[in-house]
Amino acid sequence: MKMIRNPWKKMVLNRLILSFICILLPLYILAMVIYNWGIETLQTEISNSMTSQVSQYFTGLENEFSRIQDLQLDSLSDDNLNALAAIPESLTAIDKVEKILALQQRLNAIRNSSAYIEEVHAYIPAISKDISALSVSDFDRGMYVDLMNLPALGEAQVVNVRDSMYMVSAYPYLLPGSKREPIVIVAIKLSLDKLRDALYAMRTLPEEGLVFSSTQFTKIATSLDTDLNDKIVQQIVQGKGGSVASRVIRVDGQRYLTVNMSSSFFGAMLIKYVPERAVFQPLEKYRNWFLLFAVVSLAIILLYSLFVYKYIHKPLDRLVKAFRKVELGDVSAQIRHESRDEFQYIYTRFNAMIDNIKSLIDQVYMQQILTQKAELKQLQSQINPHFLYNSFFILKTMTRLGDYDQVERFANQLSEYFQFMTRSHSDEVLISKEVQHAKVYAEIQGLRFANRVTVSFGELPENTGHVMVPRLILQPLIENAFEHGLERKATGGQLNVQFEKEDSRLYLIVEDNGEPIDDEELERINHDFEKPEIETTGLINIHQRLRLKFGSGSGLVLSRSEWGGVRVTITIETSEGRG
């Protein structure tokens, strides 16, 4: 009997050892791999988070200071400032006081527009005054000369004057080396304390540090360890990278995760760093616990998996299959469940949801139709008053010049245009009438922009004029091209409207050589067309009405025109293509 037991025990022991080698050892290795992978992933995520935070902060800071610069440049055209700087001898003492007070209000409005502004000064040699937002003092000739003789700093708009940060603009603008003095200099003094406070607000860990480094200014940092800050800045400046870079550097035997971003606007670099130990040291104690947890979890998972499969997976699988039927359009799917548990409630609510969907389909469809009709009515009622004013001005000009033939033609065009716009008995028209209305509008605008914009208008392909389309789908695109693309063209403007037919698709194309649009803006607008929840604009309204009328294959697409402007393409799936 012992001869029989011993081999059995040996076999059991061998199986246990084999199980350890086949299961626990790979699990241990897997645990180490997962741990190391988690560390690397965490490091990557922290770097990405730091990069995103630094990029968003610096971009926001540039936008804020660009806005301040716009206000500064706009202040140079202030009537009170120009009068004090250019013609002070023509002003009485009372006039000077009134204009100085008005100018102070303007400067104070600029000062209060941003927390980063400490003071706004207007140096006016003609009246020997330094007018600030809060005071009026005697003219500081030395400061005026320092501001006037600032060296060229490339693209940097923030400069160092007497160890303070300034944004400086002068009128008239003087080229470097010019001996002529400006009649006025507007200098905005920026608050280093507010910039430092903003850096402190960016910290998410006590060990994190931020450094605002520039060749012009003393480093602005959140850490008092200036030696560490200098060493980190030195290594990053010596290293290679783009305008935004993340890297791991070693300083005095300690590793730091760093992110830096450069700004030509400030002529500076923003660096954020955090010691690796501050991020990963709390995770070290979890390594052994993780391995123990993995071993215990293996047994638990096996038992739990059997339970989950029977009582959760199978019921969920039935629910998923039912949802897939609904996705495919089968709204008759119903689920039965005998056990009195949570799934019985879910199945009951699913069946009730399906019943509600059946009853709501027709209501939702009609609601969409009524909504689109209401939006069309609103679009019809929004006749641009500027268009009407410009039309009357053109009529006045023709009449004054005695061009009565053109007056008659233009009056007929206006009559035809407003007759179409105010007609409300039908929400759909023949595409031939829609195109004719757009052509009339283009001719009217052509007269308004004569000698500035050339309009070319193609003809509809044969056998397409009978297609019924929603009203006002083409003319708003032409109006949009004039308003946003061609209105600022002094000469050489081009607008081309053409039509193409390919199989079952009809294309209406409007393109211009107006203001260019970048790829990100084009992508955003085309993406907005697919968002039903987004606020409805003119273009989105046209896109949705075309989709509702002709199906998902129809609608608007924006692209870049070969002339450099915008190309808008209307795609219409005719009935033979959708049949």
Topology diagram in text:
Layout: H1 2-75, H2 79-86, H3 93-112, E1 117-124, E2 129-132, E3 136-138, H4 141-148, E4 159-161, E5 164-171, E6 184-190, H5 192-201, E7 209-214, E8 220-221, H6 226-238, E9 244-251, E10 254-263, E11 268-275, H7 276-284, H8 286-327, H9 342-381, H10 385-401, H11 404-422, E12 428-430, H12 431-448, E13 453-457, E14 468-470, H13 475-486, E15 493-502, E16 505-512, H14 519-528, H15 538-550, E17 555-560, E18 566-573, H16 575-578
Parallel strand pairs: 13-15
Antiparallel strand pairs: 1-2, 1-6, 2-3, 4-5, 5-6, 7-8, 7-11, 9-10, 10-11, 12-14, 15-16, 16-18, 17-18
Helix pairs in contact: 1-8, 2-3, 9-15, 10-11, 11-12, 12-13
Structure description:
By secondary structure, the protein is an alpha+beta fold. Helix content is 55%, strand content 19%. The chain is built from 16 helices and 18 strands. It has helices spanning 2-75, 79-86, 93-112, 141-148, 192-201, 226-238, 276-284, 286-327, 342-381, 385-401, 404-422, 431-448, 475-486, 519-528, 538-550, 575-578, and strands at residues 117-124, 129-132, 136-138, 159-161, 164-171, 184-190, 209-214, 220-221, 244-251, 254-263, 268-275, 428-430, 453-457, 468-470, 493-502, 505-512, 555-560, 566-573. The strands form four sheets. It has a six-stranded antiparallel sheet with strand order 3-2-1-6-5-4, with helices on both faces. Strands 8-7-11-10-9 form a five-stranded antiparallel sheet. The chain has a five-stranded mixed sheet with strand order 13-15-16-18-17. A hairpin with a 4-residue loop joins strand 1 and strand 2. The chain is flat and about 95 Å long. The N and C termini lie far apart (85 Å).
